[in-house]
Each structure stands twice: as structure tokens, then as C-alpha cells.
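User: C-alpha cells for this complex, please. No commentary.
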Amino acid sequence: MQEHAATSSARSRRATEPFQFVAASYLIRIGRQRATNLGELARHLRTCPDASIFYHTFQSLESHHYTTFSSDFAQWVMAACNEPALAERMAALDLREFVSIADLRRSLVQAVEDHLRSFPPAADRPAFEPFHFCEAVEVVFPVELRAFTLAELASGIRRLSLHTLHYHLINSRLRLQLKTNDFSFWVEHSLGLPELAERINRVDFYTNTLEGVREEVVRLLESWDSP
Amino acid sequence: MNMSASVPSPAPARRAPRLDDYVRIIGPGEVDELRALARRLAGRSVKMVNSTAVGGGVAEILNRLVPLLQEVGVPTRWDVITGGDEFFQITKAFHNALHGGPFQGGPEWFATFLATNEENRRRLEFSEDFIVVHDPQPVALVVERDRTPAHWIWRCHIDLSHPNSEVWEFLRPYVEQYDAALFSSPAFTQGLPIPQYLFFPTIDPLADKNRELDAKFIRSVLERFQIDPQRPILTQVSRFDRLKDPVGVIRAYRMVKKYHDCQLVLAGGAASDDPEGSEVLREVEEAAAGDPDIHVLNLPPWSAREINALQRASTIVIQKSIREGFGLTVTEALWKKKPVVASAVGGIPSQVIHKVTGMLVHSVEGCAYQLRYLLANPDFARQLGRNGHEHVKENFLITRNLRRYLLLFLILLNQR
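Assistant:
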């Protein structure tokens, strides 16, 4: 691939291993845990299934563009507990920095515990409405769509549902255990374009809708003409 | 008060929408993936069972869902259980009791309930791969489960958060025999030992009640009901029922009226066969008497397009229920990009995220204050409407319901 990269322009490169698109879907399973105040939230955050942490953080990013915060936990802490400082701290946990749910869980618990140490009465103050822990049950399978070139990758991304775009771009970070996404990983390793891979990885999914993210990634792929 | 029920006869039925008709709403990728999910269920079949073929939200959902399942290649049969008046009186009492009301039945009611379920079990065939039983009326059909290889699913459309314990303890052993239970909100569930999944109720964006309307038609509806299009219109759409608090809405409107020259529309279904409904309608008329800006509209059942037009013409949509199921009238309003002021009850908080997709309230006074706030801040109100539309698009459309069922079937298949 490196030899290939040195002798052809980015747009004409053809990978030997294609990018395999998938169809990703999530069904929400209702958990048994329920928090009616911050003390209970802290307790359940320590013990709830990994799939709950995933659902209320990574998965909620899919629809965060119309909510104030990108995490369900932060949204509830703000809207139901009226604790803006804690909500902001929980929302500020950058999912790009986490490659394991265990690390993310530790940070969430830490945020709540620190807050309750500073404001102990907040632990028992009843929330405006309870927080119901849920889990995402993921169903993923490969589809016929594959890409060998940047143009084919861009065309495929245009066709994806938002769930699948979210899967390739955001959930992939946990799967790859790297601070990157499926598209960047393939562009770097199969097309030999690390700079483009980095540019894709920098597209900000916090301050954009998923449609906006899609447009930005496609624009990068279609306009990239560096050797 | 302006009261009218003048609605032309039902319009001729239109062609039922096909999956491709939804592409312009949800995009080609979503539709591709629905078909791809369905292909993985090739050779599998589904039976839906409920207690009525017409009327009510469940029948409305199945009327759209069953053809879509068929279209994507999952043969689906819809069976309706039969029973006498006594059975349906008992199930109505169960329904009210499961919503937390009192229960005055005795052991003979439970016996009649089980006998009717048994008659239906003997009458129906259960040869499909997935049996989806809707609501409590046919719940005891599950005793057939061990005689079939099928996966049995209970779809509960009602709020079970505070059930009457006598009725729930009678039904619970049947519910626990299912492979999964589906609820409309996490808040509606009970601690069951079987997996529970979140299945939001959904609306059909291409149905008469929700599809885009010609501006001329909307104007004509306002003219017909003598509603002024130049002044703000506050609307609540719901049957005339004390649990929808229509008199409370009038009180809130009066508080708003001191600050804004607005109108109130209370549009509800015909209540002639419901003695309590007629009584509530009279109370509403009395409360509205003497104010020409309150429009109490008692509409016939074929008024879907008129309701749609009234919602689209509204400045703000209200749903000040005291108790609520999921509140699909809220979903309809959000889909039409309307700012919504609604009570934080039932499934409404799943739809109205406070200050994000609408405003949640807990009292007449709170309702009035938020109405005033939105009338004074139209940019914020428009943003709520836009957010609400996106929220519905992502969670509460019929295509999402189809996707959830396909996913559930795949998950259950993989579990065995």
C-alpha cells in the first residue's frame, strides 16, 4: 500500500481490501434500575450493565442535536435535578477520549461523587422525574455495499441511515479500542492516507447534527486530492 | 363561545402508502435497511392478536403496521378475539383498574375472562413463528405457548406503573409466560422477570391526520369554524373527558387572554354514546359561554383532515391532561412543528423534553405562564417546534415501529 500511495493520486487509489458497510440497529431494553435522586444515580452508575452506560452516552449522541447535553445522564441531572454544574461536568466528558466503557463509567461516577461531596444535601433531593436505566441491544450485519475508492466510500456514506453512520463513526471507537473511527481506520490502513484519516477523525460530532457530520465527511472525501 | 360540528362527509379512501412513499421523509438509507432487516427474517411469519378491528389506537397502528410487514416480505396475520358483552365489560374494568382505578369485580369475573380466552385459544391457530398479543384482553392465550415453537410477545399499550394489585396479580402469571414484553415508556413498566423493551407508539406521517395540507384547505377549515387566522390560536385536541381537563384549559386561556388577544380551540370527538362525555361537553360549554373567541368543536369521527388543519393553523398546541396514556395528539402536534405546552403525565415526558421540544407543566397556572412565555418569544417557540419535529422523526414514526418489530424478531431468534 505504501508503494501504491507514493505512485498515484489519492482519488485514483484502489484498496485491495474494501470498506465493508453494515446495517446497524438498536432496540432499547428497559432495565430494572431507576434513580429518583443523585444518590441513587451514583449507586446505579457503579452497578448498571455496560450496555446501559453505552446507551445513555454513546447511543444518545445519535439524537443529541436537539437536547442541551449529549449524554442522557447530563440531560437528566440538568432537567430533573436542576444541578447545572454537575450536568455540565458530565456532558463535558469527551467520548472521543474513551476506548472502554469501564473508563467512562469511572469518570461518570467520579463526577457525581465529587459533586455530592461538595453538596451533600443534593444526594437525597427528589428529582422532578425518575431516571430509568435502559440498554441498547445492537443488531449489526454486513450489507452488499462496499467501497474500494474514496469516491465509492463517499457514495456509500451518502446512502447510510443515521444509525449506521453513527455506528461507523462513533460506536466504532469502542469496538476498535482506538481513538478513531471505521472510516479513518480504513482510509489510513487500506488507502494509505493518514492525513485524510486524521481530518475525518477531527470532524466534530458534538457541535453538529449527524446529517451535518455526514456532509462534512463526504465533502472531505470528495475534495481530497493530495498525493 | 362558538360551537360547531359542521364537517363534510368522509372523503373517499386514498391508496394506502407503500414503503417507498416514506423515502422522502426518512431517506433511502432507512428504507434500504428496513428491507435488509426483513430479508434476514425470510420464511418467518407473524401473528398479531388484539381485541378490536376498528376504533382505538391499537387497531389504528395494526391497520398500518400489518401491510408494511407484508410488504417487506414478513407474512403477517391479524386475528381479533371474540367475546360477549360481559367479557368486554370485564376487560374495560381491568383496563381502568390497571390504570390505578378501583376494582369491584369478583372471582366470577376472572373465571369469565379465562373462559373467553380459552374459547379463543381453541378457535385460533398458532402456526406462526412470532405471536404478538396486544393488551390484557387476550393475555391468557399464552397458555398455548408450550404447544407451539413460536416466540410469544406481549405488547402492553397501557400505563402499568400504578396498577390495582388485585387485577395485576391475577394477570401477572400470564404475562410472565411470554418471551418478552413491550411497553410505551420506561415509566409504564413493572418489575417482570422477562425482558422488557421500549416500543414507543407511533404516528403515520402519510395518514390524513398528519400529512401535509394545502394552505387553501387550512384556511377553509378556519373559515368554516369562524376562527380568525390573524390572531394567535391555542388548541387542545382530545375527547371531552375530565382527565383531559378541558375546563382547566379554559381557565389557563383566560389568564393568557389578559396579556394576549388570542383564541382557544377545544376540538374533540363525538360523545353522544358516552354519558360522561356528554356531561363534560356541557360543562365545557358552560365554562366557555359568552366568549366568542373560545371555539368548542365536537367533531365527527371522519374529521382527520380537519383536526390536521386545526393543528397546523395553531400557534401553540396544549395537552393539559390530568392522566394520559402516551398522548399521540402531542406526537401529532410535534410532527407539525408546533410548540407544545403539555402536562408532565403518562408518556408525555418521553415526547416533550422540557424547554427543548416543548414545555412541561403541572398546573393551570403553569400552563398559562408557559403559553404567555411562548407567545411573547416566537423565535424560541419556533425552535421548540423544529426540535419536536426531529424528535418525532427519530422516534415516533410508523417506520420506526416497523424497524423495532423486525429487530425484536431477530433478537428473539438469536436467543434460542
